[in-house]
Amino acid sequence: SSGINAEYGGAIKAGSDISSYTDDFWISFEKIVGLNVFGAGTIDGQGPNVWKYKEKGGSMLPISLKFMHNEHVLMSGLKSINPMGFHISIVNSVDVTATNMHLIAPEDSPNTDGFHISQSTNVKVLDSVVATGDDCVGIIHGSIDVVVKRVICGPGHGLSIGSLGKYDDEKLLQNVVIENCTMQNTDNGARIKTYGGSLPSVAQNITFQNIKMTNVSNPIIIDQAYGNSKAPSKVQINQVQFINIRGTTPTENGVDIQCSKVVPCKGLTLSKINLKYIGQKKLPFTSLCTNAKIAYVGPQAPSPCR
Questions:
Q1: Exposed e or buried b for every residue in 262-276, given b needs 16+ CB within 10 A?
Q2: d(CA 279, CA 271)
Q3: SS3 category, 187
Q4: Residue 58 pLDDT more than 70?
Q5: DSSP 20
Q6: Between the chain's N and C termini, which has fewer beta carbons within 10 Å?
Q7: Phi then psi for 19, rounded to 5 degrees?
Q8: Can you tell me the distance from the alpha carbon of 302 to that of 276, in angstroms, rounded to the nearest whole number?
């Protein structure tokens, strides 16, 4: 199909009988060229009725809005609350812009990622607010030319590349810029996470720039033992910049870079890092770095790894 406008008004509420969902989504847009999704309505997944099933280790709950195999998509002004699973998933799509979005769920809601981007090219997430129970933005394999700008994140699990290495034959992730964002009371800040024991893949040309953090645990973190610390990850991380990251953290390790011993991180740069420890313990404020070559530019707080 081509040239479709979808306007949401009022409140749209999902049904809460999980057995009635045959797919992993509630609402989907598929195989459309030229799609405009907008409106002042509220998309209510009624997650509190079903989150208990996820907490018991059940399978993934339905995504509120899923975009698959689309081109030239604009979504603007939408409000998503309390999704069963992710708020918004963008998969196998090209030229997608999301702007002025509000994605809201409780801090303890399970797997309620805000924007989840996979195998898509030329994606922009702009001028939006995400307060949720998982990653505010999660960018996984096959994502190329992704820009995240002026997003307010928190609570949530951070602005994340990954998880990577979860699946076989993962595609290249490259050219991601996350900048001019604000984070408050999140579990992580600027984060890259790859599974231990993964098959080989590559993530490269990633920039986190001009990010202000307030009370953010793990402000700068690369975790290549995510989900499995016993086997090394084979996801190669190349050319990552953290530039002008500033704010406060309750964690004594303001920078925590744990790369893979079999494919160490290459081309990491930390430039103008200004973090302040506000935790209760009287501990030194430090950086932890393993299996990484890091170039430092300008002032560094905490002090660089040596």
A1: ebebeebebbbbebe
A2: 24
A3: coil
A4: no
A5: G
A6: C
A7: -65, -15
A8: 8
Could you tell me the pLDDT band of residue 281, with boundaries at 50, 70 and 90?
confident
HSE of 274, CA atoms in CB hemisphere, 13 A: 10
Please state whether beta strands 115-118 and 88-91 pair in parallel, antiparallel, or not at all (unpaired).
parallel
Residues in CB range of 52: below 8 A, 6 or more apart: none
What type of residue sits at position 220? I
Would the pTM count as exceeding 0.90?
A: yes
- Residue 169, sorted as left (phi over 0), alpha (psi -120 to 50) or beta, turns out to be left
Distance CA 83, CA 114 (A): 9
For 190-239, write each residue's pLDDT tens digit. 999 999 999 999 999 999 999 999 999 999 999 999 987 789 999 999 99
d(CA 272, CA 22): 49
Return the closest-CA partner of residue 183 out of 161, 216, 150, 207.
216
pLDDT at position 70: 98
Query: Distance (Å, rounded) from C-alpha 152 to C-alpha 255?
Result: 21
Q: 268: closest CA among 221, 228, 225, 213?
A: 221
Residues marked active site are found at 134, 157
Q: What is the pLDDT of residues 102-121, one digit of tens each?
A: 999 999 999 999 999 999 99
Q: Which residues contact 165 (CB under 8 A, 6 or more apart)?
A: 194, 195, 197, 198, 199, 201, 233, 234, 235
Q: Give the list of residues 6+ apart from residue 264 with CB closer than 8 angstroms, or none.
A: 291, 292, 293
